[in-house]
Each structure stands twice: as C-alpha cells, then as structure tokens.
Amino acid sequence: MSTSDRKRATYADLESLPENVVGQIIYGELIALPRATARHNRLIVKLLGVLLPAFDETLGNIGGWIFLSKTELHLGDDALVPDIVGWRGSEPAEIDEPFLTIVPDFICEVLSPSTAEIDRRRKLPIYAKAGIGHVWLLDPEAESFEVFRRVGEGWAVTGAWSADARVRAEPFDRQLEYSLSQL
Q: Which residue from 50, 98, 109, 179 lies 20 to 30 Å from 147 (Cα-Cα)?
C-alpha cells in the first residue's frame, strides 16, 4: 500500500498511544517507538549539563539560548520529538502548551539502534525544510558526533568527531570541553 493510499495520521492518533511509547507523525505516518532507555536519557542530561551553564539565558549567559528536552514540535504536518531543542532568545520559555510550533535554531538527536534511520533519513529533511539552522547527531554506540548547518533546503557537515575529541561545534561560540566517552 502506498503512502498516498494510507490514511494520514492525526494528532488524535498520537494522543491515543499508550504512555510507554513516544509517537511522532513523519510525512503523514504515525511512528511509535518505545520510550528511551535510562542510558539514552542520561546522555541527554549530561549534554544539557554542558550546554546549560555555557549558553542558557536563564543563567545570565551572553548569547541567550533556551534549551528544552523531549519537546513535541509541530513543523507543518509533522509532529516530531527531538532529544534537545534550542532557541536563541526566550520566546518559547513562557509557552505552556503540550507542543510548540516555533521553529528552533538548534536540534540535537541522540541516535539509538531504533531511531538512527528515522533521525537521519526522515527527520533531517523535515528539519531543513522547516528552516532549522543546525542539527547535531550524537551516536553513543559509534562514539561519534556530527554537526550539520542548513544550506538551502539541505545540510552541510561542519564537523565530525569521535571518542575523546574536544569539540567546538556550531552554532555555539565557545569550546565545549567534553569527550563523547565521558557522556
């Protein structure tokens, strides 16, 4: 059955999913995956522990970023749940809604065996089309870290690191002092 022959998923389909899964709508298709493992979530917390003190505007840092984790984004007809999202400025910080429609400046996806293909092949084009400026892909299994900058409706790789590399990654303006093996 082709995608056009199938019924397009709706927000009601997302809401009807059991609590033990994370649902996303990608190109009209409902994607339901098990919730992330504790290891996956711990890596997100550790990465936020690097980003927040250096860049988060609520901590009085110059650059004024707002970071959120596991926030549902509605980008056109797609409903996605990136691991970390970031905006320059404070616009989304005061919104008290179950999902956001404000396009972020930055997204980080922590890859896992069940999400890597979806994150790379299906979500990256949506992020580019929506106008997101930078995407990080962090793969704990391969101990790799890739940084992408949007160019037109596609991506340019601006950096790729592995294991113990010290990273200075767009869109942030200072060195991030950590290694993947510590995350």
A: 98
Phi and psi based region of residue 85 (left: phi greater than 0; alpha: psi -120 to 50; beta: remaining): beta
- One-letter amino acid of 105: D
Dist. CA 35–CA 22, nearest whole Å: 6
What number of H helices and E strands is found in the chain? 4, 10
For residue range 92-135, list pLDDT tens digits in order.
Answer: 666 778 899 999 999 999 999 989 999 999 999 999 999 999 99
With residue 126 as reference, give the H or E element that holds it: helix 124-130
In the chain the first and final C-alpha atoms are separated, in Å, by 42
Q: Express each pLDDT in 73-92 by its tens digit.
A: 999 999 999 999 999 876 66
Kindly list the strands in the beta sheet with 21-26, ordered across the sheet, starting from the edge strand earlier in the chain. Answer: 29-34, 21-26, 78-80, 73-75
Report the amino acid identity of residue 87.
W
